[in-house]
């Protein structure tokens, strides 16, 4: 099930970015000068955008939706999950009937640890999130430590990050018949003992994983890396070059369904904003993800 507010025609919402190397996405509407934003989802028809918007000091965070119609994006609306004031990221199940997001909300009564965990919500055919169904997922994805950043492709191959072993590492899982199974921690060279790792995109064939990490070979802050699965194992991650990575922080890499555009978030200063991360869009240079 592909989610879109228009199932019959392809929009031209990204046409204006076709001839630019890199640009802030929808200045003043989706990307703002006073908040941090990172894209989580763009519909196959490129007419629905779902993204995280956080305050400058990250004290509050919400998930927003904007729709493209009549050649413009709508004013983003915050999705009401009814639990807590800090939600981030969003990934859909393969059938589109559930969505998963990071929530900083106590799972059990009396829990005051204020940890990140992965929650779920049911979604109807009109792309409406059913607030009454919001709940933490009941699987070993959630632990007594922090768990976040679940991403999944349409085949149910999922990745998430957890600090259950003392550092932020990437784990993999298979989403089968509504459950997350076969949870395993990825080995080196994706997870590194001296850094944290957070996944953001897995290709449809399950063989290209994009993630952010702070490593000595990077440009500075979080950088975006890609690792390819070959000959039975994940290969050494490749640092994405400028202008994607910079001396600032970059994360939240994701592609359009047709692989024509790459989105990512960057905290670099620009004429538009300083001190916050904006969503950037870049024409893809031929990735086969």
Topology:
Elements lengths: L22 E2 L11 E7 L5 E7 L6 E9 L2 E2 L3 E2 L8 E6 L5 E7 L11 E8 L5 E8 L10 E6 L4 E6 L6 E8 L2 E7 L11 E6 L5 E6 L9 E8 L2 E2 L3 E2 L10 E6 L5 E6 L11 E6 L6
Antiparallel strand pairs: 1-22, 2-3, 3-4, 4-5, 4-6, 7-8, 8-9, 9-10, 11-12, 12-13, 13-14, 15-16, 16-17, 17-18, 17-19, 20-21, 21-22
Strand content: 35-45%
Q: Flag low-confidence runs.
A: 6-10
CATH class, anyone? Mainly Beta
Helices and strands, in order, run as: EEEEEEEEEEEEEEEEEEEEEE
Number of helices: 0
Q: Write the CATH fold name.
A: Neuraminidase
Radius of gyration: 18 Å
Shape: globular
Which class of secondary structure composition applies to the elements? mainly beta
- The rounded distance between the terminal residues' Cα atoms is 21 Å
Estimate nothing, just give the exact number of structural domains. 1
CATH architecture: 6 Propeller
Whole-number average pLDDT?
A: 92
Number of strands: 22
Largest sheet: 5 strands, antiparallel
Compact overview of the structure:
Helices cover 0% and strands 44% of the residues. With 289 residues, the protein is mainly β. Mean pLDDT is 92; it is low at 6-10.
Q: Any key phrases for this structure?
A:
22 strands; Neuraminidase; globular
Describe this structure in words.
The chain has 289 residues and is an all-beta fold. It has one domain: TolB, C-terminal domain (Neuraminidase, 6 Propeller). It has strands spanning 23-24, 36-42, 48-54, 61-69, 72-73, 77-78, 87-92, 98-104, 116-123, 129-136, 147-152, 157-162, 169-176, 179-185, 197-202, 208-213, 223-230, 233-234, 238-239, 250-255, 261-266, 278-283. The strands form five sheets. Strands 2, 3, 4, 5 and 6 form a five-stranded antiparallel beta sheet that branches. Strands 15, 16, 17, 18 and 19 form a five-stranded antiparallel beta sheet that branches. It is globular and about 45 Å long.
